[in-house]
Amino acid sequence: MRLKAMPPLRLMIAVGLMLAPLVVALAAAVHSEALSSGVAALVGLLPLLGAGLALRLHQREAAAVADYAAQLSHSGSPTPPTGAPVALGGLIAAVARLHRVAARRTESVQAQLDANDSILDALPSPLLVMDAARQVTRANLMARDLFGDKVLGRDLAATLRTPAVLEAVDAVLGGGATRVFEFTLPVPVERTFEAQVKPFQRTLPAADPLADPVADSANDGLSVPAPVPQTIRMAILTLHDVTAARRSEQMRADFIANASHELRTPLSSLLGFIETLRGPARDDPEAQDRFLAIMHDQASRMSRLVNDLLSLSRIELDEHMLPNGRVDVLDELENVIAALELKAAERRIRLILDAPDSVPRVAGDDDQLTQVFQNLVSNAIKYTREDSDVTVQVTVVDGAAVGFAGLPASGRRGGRGGARMVAVAVRDQGEGIARTHLPRLTERFYRVDAARSRAMGGTGLGLAIVKHIVNRHRGRLTIESEVGVGSAFTVYLPATDESLGAADSAARRKAG
Ligand SMILES: Nc1ncnc2c1ncn2[C@@H]1O[C@H](COP(=O)(O)OP(=O)(O)OP(=O)(O)O)[C@@H](O)[C@H]1O
Ligand SMILES: [Mg+2]
């Protein structure tokens, strides 16, 4: 803003008013002939010129102060006008002080805004703020992580095209009440969000008229109109990721559906046979024998299923508690192999244990580890080719080499170096499993060929049980398979520092 020079007419009137009493006095003196009119004109003209000059100078200095104030509001630190007279010097100091106070206030408002940004960024859920034109004016860290930095300053529709979200935001911006709903983002990975769109009124200070060059030119620099604040309606969108909750609900529902389905099949077959035994087969002892054998199979299947389900829920219950026993894996494996040898022989399968003389004990529950090895070896027997080898290989490996970190202290050798793991790999020479099935094999009831597994008496819970037991032991299960070649299921278990001496293992082998 520039202070304009006073128009000449105004200047003359101002000077005329200042000198009016002198003119009246001089006129009276001329009238009473105390002064000649020439002298009176001279006496009147000199103060007139002096006052005009003084007013002009004063006005120039006032303009310099106004300039200084304008520069302060734009650039922040101009040099104050030099050679200012005492009266305006005070004014310059007052303007500079006023500016310093305003600058401090701005800084503190800025600090408050920065703190608000940090608080928004600390929120665990994405949050976006849209203005009346649906442009995103704020996005917290989680929102920027989800949608990228380019979300800011653009229409929400440019980033998030879900119609339900856009509709809700439009409705809220149009005066509607808060909306809560769920939607799914299909990419990059499918995620389900619970969204809340809330209205929010924001009062904006009106544009500063002095900052507007058009308004400024119409302004005489003395009267500044007060800015009129403006209220605008905005919308706040918060997203809450409910993918895990929805997935677990779905899994629970699937689980109940699967379990009931698995039980219903043998149950309806049992009911059918009971009907037949009471009716058409009442007097047919040969058919009765046949049917009773099938009924026995079906009942055993139901009992196995119920046992597996109970075992799974028990394991899940104490999955968070580390087992406190010490288990000799070789002992367990020898027992499991001995128990399954007969079943293997039926398909002319050779069970081979390939292990060092001794391995460190693992922290574990022996019954549960027996269940793990039994499941894996019996799967290998069931799904491998007839007349082939199933090898159970035991090795001691460095945990770090197989991607292990953060193991309990008992899994570390001498407190430093890599954690030792006992690896048990069960390898078969079966037809293998296609890659697409691998990630889902440990899901409950998941079977590559359900009919075949069911025909072999499988419930599809074996590997789910294995996975939960291995988790409880803070171990890991890996599955490698090649179609047409065979599969390898490897269980890694953290070793303790207790090593079996050679004498122990020799004694054990002798006893075995
Ligand atoms: N060694 C293997 N070779 C090929 N496929 C396998 C092997 N082990 C498991 N599978 C596949 O994984 C599926 C799931 O195995 P899991 O042990 O959980 O169930 P199951 O053997 O069918 O039944 P259960 O073990 O409860 O009696 C099996 O149905 C089978 O399709
Ligand atoms: Mg199995």
TrEMBL record:
Keyword Transmembrane helix among record annotations: no
PROSITE patterns in the record: HIS_KIN
Molecular function in Gene Ontology: ATP binding; histidine phosphotransfer kinase activity; phosphorelay sensor kinase activity
CDD domains per record: HisKA
Catalysed reactions, semicolon-separated: ATP + protein L-histidine = ADP + protein N-phospho-L-histidine
Superkingdom classification of source: Bacteria
Cellular component GO terms held in the UniProt record: plasma membrane
Keyword Kinase: yes
Record-annotated Histidine kinase domain positions: 258-497
Matching InterPro entries: HATPase_C_sf, HATPase_dom, His_kinase_dom, HisK_dim/P_dom, HisK_dim/P_sf, Sig_transdc_His_kin-like_C
UniProt keywords, alphabetically: ATP-binding, Cell membrane, Kinase, Membrane, Nucleotide-binding, Phosphoprotein, Transferase, Two-component regulatory system
SMART domains per the UniProt record, alphabetical: HATPase_c, HisKA
Subcellular location(s) per record: Cell membrane
EC annotation from Swiss-Prot or TrEMBL: 2.7.13.3
Chief subcellular location: membrane
Name used for this protein in its record: histidine kinase
Organism: Azospirillum griseum
Source taxonomy: Bacteria, Pseudomonadati, Pseudomonadota, Alphaproteobacteria, Rhodospirillales
